[in-house]
Write a structure and sequence with these properties.
Its cofactor is FAD. The chain has 16 helices and 19 strands. The protein is α+β, with helices and mostly antiparallel strands. The strands form 5 sheets. A 5-stranded antiparallel sheet has the order 5-6-10-8-9. It binds flavin-adenine dinucleotide.
Length: about 475
């Protein structure tokens, strides 16, 4: 049965009340436009349930009448999973499902409604004297449901893991409106298949997460943070190995940055002055989170050795929280500055950590071969093997013409990634951006298992049609 927009809005209004339904296309802009402005399809309506029961009622109705639903949380996703693909969908926003169900600092977990923003989750943890260690630049808007739906990573995966590893249990409404009650706080639970981990990272195609039990950690006493000059990605890898051996899991971040990223920030006024010690082709932002009762100095001692061995050529250890902040801002702005410099081609890829230098050398050469003059701005989570392998247009080039060659650059870079045993989506997911690519590169048996799971949990294809599996 195909319903008109009026019929859809009227049915949703009956279920939720007029104040929880957006039916006017002109009022949907904030829900249908996404950060990269790549996807531009309308929605039939936006539903904003306030309770899990209301969400269940919406899904029961959608299932019965065959209306497609796009789950949306903070709308910060970078692969278009949270916005419509066909234009016949209803966006179901979980933004009003906000709140704290419980916090148990002693046991080390909290249970939050899925519409709580990541920033609010940090504050709730902090109020309890603890920490929820998932940090991403979009945390002011991203919500727990979306963070889990996309299995977000961020800058401390190295030590604490990604969203999946930080979650003990979830509650979710399924395509037919039934509810999966998996909100437990068990570290060990081998009672059959791992449904929680299936829902996490399913990008809204298998169920809508309504609440989650998340792990809490003791707050570090203080941070030791340094911005270090290294000659090459090979030297950065060597430094990583040394620091990791000395600091273990207290090494909570190890980020690689290229000189061009700093130059561009200076050029576009995003950094007032150069915070590095001297010019260098590459930099590492390394951070040790020192637990209470354990003295500091580990970073300095390790760096003395690394400088002695010529692995680090120069560097600055942050002398204040403000200086630490400056280093991190530099890192966080690496992606944004590229849009100020013109057109850019981006890849969120991972390889085994030891293969990162090869990825960078071979990937840049492959991209230059298909687009001479292309400028690599490769940065990111070296310690996780996850590089945001981005390229800016040649200086002064025509951005449109540059983007016409994007497909050739993608192919060149992905070929290197796959050759090195890597992944073409390290942390942002598949959404609608990479469905074709997934079909090309994913193991056929894994793909077939994914399809079987989708059709078992959502036989009518109600949830997020066309996403992930295409
Ligand atoms: C400036 C910026 C920086 C970023 N940095 C990082 C980073 O460092 N690491 C990283 O991993 N990502 C990063 N991202 C991507 C994005 O912020 C994350 O993927 C985030 O986790 C998405 O959360 P959200 O609430 O905005 O979800 P949305 O964008 O609303 O949704 C994301 C996906 O999850 C699905 N979904 C939404 N709600 C639910 C739910 N309740 N249950 C199940 N599925 C659901 C959607 O359908 C969609 O497929 C960044 C984005 C921006 C704009």
């Amino acid at each position: 049965m195909t319903l008109s927009r009026d019929q859809i809005v009227s049915a949703l209004t009956q279920i939720l009340g007029a104040e929880s339904v957006v039916g006017e296309p002109g009022q949907m802009t904030g829900y249908i436009s996404e950060p990269r402005k790549r996807f531009h399809k309308e929605a039939q309506a936006v539903a904003l349930p306030r309770t899990v029961a209301e969400l269940q009622a919406v899904m029961e109705w959608a299932h019965e009448v065959g209306v497609h639903v796009v789950p949306q949380a903070g709308n910060t996703g970078l692969v278009g999973g949270q916005v419509p693909l066909f234009g016949d969908e209803v966006i179901v926003s979980i933004s009003r499902l906000k709140g704290v169900r419980s916090v148990d600092a002693a046991a080390g977990h909290m249970t939050l409604d899925a519409g709580t923003t990541l920033q609010e989750a940090h504050e709730i943890a902090e109020d309890a004297g603890m920490m929820f260690p998932l940090y991403i630049a979009s945390q002011g808007s991203a919500r727990i449901g979306g963070v889990l739906g996309s299995n977000a990573g961020g800058v401390q995966v190295l030590s604490y893991g990604n969203a999946r590893e930080l979650c003990l249990g979830v509650e979710a409404v399924l395509a037919d409106g039934s509810i999966y009650k998996g909100l437990n706080a068990l570290k060990k639970d081998n009672m059959g298949y791992d449904i929680k981990n299936l829902l996490i990272g399913s990008e809204g195609t298998l169920g809508i997460i309504t609440a989650a039990t998340l792990k809490l950690f003791p707050k570090p006493d203080f941070y030791e943070t340094a911005l270090l000059n290294v000659a090459s990605p090979e030297a950065a890898l060597e430094l990583f190995t040394q620091l990791r051996a000395r600091a273990g899991s207290t090494l909570t971040a190890f980020e690689l940055m290229p000189r061009i990223g700093i130059d561009l920030q200076l050029k576009h006024g995003m950094a007032a002055q150069d915070p590095s010690a001297a010019d260098s082709d590459w930099y590492v932002l390394a951070e040790i989170s020192v637990p209470k009762g354990m003295g500091g100095g580990a970073l300095e001692a390790a760096l003395e050795d690394a400088m002695g061995a010529g692995i680090v050529t120069n560097g600055v250890i942050a002398g204040s929280l403000a200086q630490r902040e400056t280093f991190w801002t530099l890192r966080e702005q690496m992606s944004e500055v590229q849009s100020r410099e013109g057109a850019s081609i981006k890849h969120d890829v991972s390889v085994p950590v030891a293969a990162v230098p090869q990825l960078i050398t071979l990937g840049i050469a492959a991209a230059e071969a298909v687009q001479p003059g292309i400028r690599a701005v490769a940065f990111g989570h070296l310690g996780d093997g996850n590089i945001h392998f981005n390229f800016s247009q040649p200086e002064g080039a025509d951005g449109k013409a540059f983007m016409e060659g994007a497909e050739a650059v993608h192919e060149a870079v992905y070929a290197v990634v796959l050759e090195l045993g890597g992944s073409v989506s390290a942390e942002h997911g598949i959404g609608q951006l990479k469905t074709k690519l997934l079909k090309q590169v994913k193991d056929p048996v894994a793909l077939s298992m994914m399809k079987s799971i989708k059709s078992a949990l959502d036989p009518k294809g109600i949830l997020n049609p066309g996403k992930v599996l295409g």
